[in-house]
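Q: What changes when adenosine monophosphate is included in the input?
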Amino acid sequence: MFAESDAARRAGRRVVFVPTMGFLHEGHLALMHEGKKRGDFLVVSIFVNPTQFGPGEDLEKYPRNLAGDLALCESAGAEAVYTPRADSMYGAGYQTYVSLSDLPNHLCGLSRPGHFRGVATVVTKLFHTVAPHVAVFGQKDFQQLAVIRRMVKDLDFFIEIVGHPTVREADGLAKSSRNSYLSPDDREKAVVLHKALSGARERVAAGERNAAAIVSWARDLILETPGTEIDYVSLCDPDSLEDLAEIGEAAVMLLAVKLGTTRLIDNMVLLP
Ligand code: AMP
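A: The predicted holo structure follows.
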């Protein structure tokens, strides 16, 4: 992979990178299309990274479809698809990790200890091997994007990070590989995440500035749907991810909700 990328760079091409865990959908495709606008040598990686899954999470059952993924990457104009094996990424004696001190102490980092250490580590490794000029990430994983931006700044990666808006189903549900876990009944119920976020945005647009009032309205709405279990509903500063009491300059609402055994996350910027 490094040789391919190095040759492209030497030929004066702009290398753009979209990291994924595969089972690709239109959200990933949108990232690839964005990538094609920002570079001319598009690399996609497909790697279900074991170090970002905790014990009892869905590493083994994470959906996979390599043949379908490769066809989609080709249709989107990817020049290379990097599909490393777990035992070559983390061989015997592996012991080096990248971790951030503050950003993981919020939101998903609290319910998934070690998750962002796994993410920062694998993205570092992928960045070294793919050596891109630009990398595109989805805003769907808002905290992940914040972690990557911070890490790139702190560790002097000379890589431009682009965040791409969340691609949604017609009813508003954010597209996700994990949506394939949902039963038809839970799939219908899952629309409540987007309803809570867009309702919160309407409240802010109408002048509400009290974060607790908005969070409590959103929690109530979600819990009206039977079978939902809230992990978190938070109104945060978009850069630090610290909880806000009052909505001032900028605010993002983030939530994680379980439906059956499936944990879904989503977010929306309420004030840009
Ligand atoms: P994943 O394969 O879930 O690890 O996601 C790979 C990349 O695609 C990450 O940067 C995600 O944020 C992004 N992504 C996943 N779902 C969506 C979506 N619905 N819209 C935009 N980007 C997404």
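Observations recorded in class: The chain has two domains: 2-164, 177-271.
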